[in-house]
């Protein structure tokens, strides 16, 4: 039995993001139903979800949303290792079996893997279907489901295949956070910390005042985190310039994540990003030493130690050299000039990168 703890945001708020509406609240089923009735009433609806969210939330979603009573459900296995083109192919075949047309609707109901992959599936099937994201993890609420990036992994390389495509709506509903464990909340919290580090010192300061990461403690800051990302993406939707600031922690973090994925030992995305932020803060020559220490201490106190050994540094460097953000065969970093300000398109010599990794890894 799910305990629906209604927390934090007492009223429905929204952000107009490019061609999307992002809705915030606690129990948004009525708003969802109204939009489905007004905009998508005469089309077929397909819900893409995973086994975890299906077991916890699908009955609640269907029973509370009249317009979804006849929706078809495609249930996938959970996990980053499912985020592949092979799984997309299987879903495309299912959409063909259901005779889904270009005016029909995909609803991606789950965490970042589902919203990333579901958005890619929708935006490529028959050259593009409308889709809605209902993110169910803190990580997907503050990051993955917003901004128009969709895609899948290619072996150990994160998000190598994908397109920019925006959902029609995103429903950021607090109630879904009530079934997350501490690790899942911490994973999302890392991306919130990143938003503060790259663009808003006040947001960083607010988050670092939180003693224990719980639904109640982080929920008041979800809107602020999404607003920061929204403002960055609005100015640079396709990551030609300023949007690259959102990559802080991700060049190294994706290498950590890809290495562990290859080794069959999955790491939560936010944990890999947190470890990556420590390394990339150390690489930030303009960042005052006291600020580097603050970032390292904050992350050390909240996150486990990266389980990768020094002997794996050559493999990590190879993964970074294949990162999709690179240009002219240089590893491309976003670094910090101070807490709340970032600088993009920074190249770091391999020797220095190796030394910082060597000092950090077990």
Write the layout of secondary structure elements.
Elements: E1 13-17, E2 20-25, H1 29-39, E3 45-50, H2 51-64, E4 72-76, H3 85-97, E5 105-110, H4 112-124, E6 130-135, H5 138-144, E7 149-154, E8 157-164, E9 169-173, H6 182-199, H7 201-208, H8 215-218, H9 222-235, H10 250-262, H11 269-282, H12 289-302, H13 313-321, E10 332-338, E11 341-347, H14 350-360
Parallel strand pairs: 2-9, 3-4, 3-5, 5-6, 6-9
Antiparallel strand pairs: 1-2, 7-8, 10-11
Helix pairs in contact: 4-5, 5-6, 5-9, 6-7, 6-9, 6-11, 10-11, 10-13, 11-12
Describe this structure in words.
By secondary structure, the protein is an alpha/beta fold. It folds into two domains: 13-180, Rossmann fold; 183-360, Dehydroquinate synthase-like - alpha domain (Dehydroquinate synthase-like, alpha domain, Up-down Bundle), CATH 1.20.1090. The protein has helices spanning 29-39, 51-64, 85-97, 112-124, 138-144, 182-199, 201-208, 215-218, 222-235, 250-262, 269-282, 289-302, 313-321, 350-360; strands at 13-17, 20-25, 45-50, 72-76, 105-110, 130-135, 149-154, 157-164, 169-173, 332-338, 341-347. A seven-stranded mixed β-sheet has the order 1-2-9-6-5-3-4. The protein has a two-stranded antiparallel ribbon with strand order 7-8. The longest helix has 18 residues, at 182-199. Strand 1 and strand 2 (20-25) form a beta hairpin. The chain is 45% helix and 19% strand.
């Amino acid at each position: 039995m799910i305990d629906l703890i209604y927390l934090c945001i007492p009223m429905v708020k929204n952000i107009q993001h490019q061609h999307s509406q992002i809705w915030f609240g606690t129990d948004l089923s009525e708003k969802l139903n109204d939009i489905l009735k007004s905009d998508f009433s005469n089309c077929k609806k397909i819900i893409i979800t995973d086994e975890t969210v299906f077991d916890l939330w699908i009955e609640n979603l269907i029973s509370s949303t009249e317009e979804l009573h006849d929706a078809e459900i495609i249930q996938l296995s959970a996990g980053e290792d499912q985020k592949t083109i092979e799984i997309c192919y299987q879903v495309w075949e299912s959409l063909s079996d259901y005779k889904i047309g270009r005016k029909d609707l995909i609803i991606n109901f789950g965490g970042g893997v589902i919203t990333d992959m579901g958005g890619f599936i929708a935006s490529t099937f028959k050259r593009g279907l409308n889709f809605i994201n209902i993110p169910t993890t803190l990580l997907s609420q503050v990051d993955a489901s917003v901004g128009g990036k969709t895609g899948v992994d290619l072996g150990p390389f994160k998000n190598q295949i994908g397109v920019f495509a925006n959902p029609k709506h995103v429903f950021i509903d607090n109630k879904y956070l009530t079934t997350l464990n501490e690790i899942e909340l911490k994973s999302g919290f890392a991306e919130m910390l990143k938003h503060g580090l790259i663009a808003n010192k006040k947001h960083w300061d607010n988050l670092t005042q939180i003693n224990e990461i719980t639904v109640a403690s982080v929920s008041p800051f979800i809107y602020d985190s999404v607003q920061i990302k929204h403002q960055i993406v609005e100015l640079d939707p396709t990551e030609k310039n300023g949007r690259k600031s959102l990559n802080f922690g991700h060049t190294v973090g994706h290498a950590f994540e890809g290495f562990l994925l290859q080794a069959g030992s999955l790491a939560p995305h936010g944990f890999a990003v947190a470890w990556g932020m420590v390394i990339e803060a150390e690489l930030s020559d303009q960042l005052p030493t006291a600020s580097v220490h603050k970032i390292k201490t904050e992350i050390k106190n909240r996150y486990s130690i990266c389980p990768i050994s020094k002997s794996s540094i050559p493999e990590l460097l190879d993964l970074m050299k294949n990162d999709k953000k690179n240009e002219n065969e240089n590893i491309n970093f976003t670094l910090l000039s101070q807490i709340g300000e970032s600088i993009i398109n920074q190249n770091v010599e391999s020797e220095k990168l190796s030394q910082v990794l060597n000092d950090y890894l077990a």
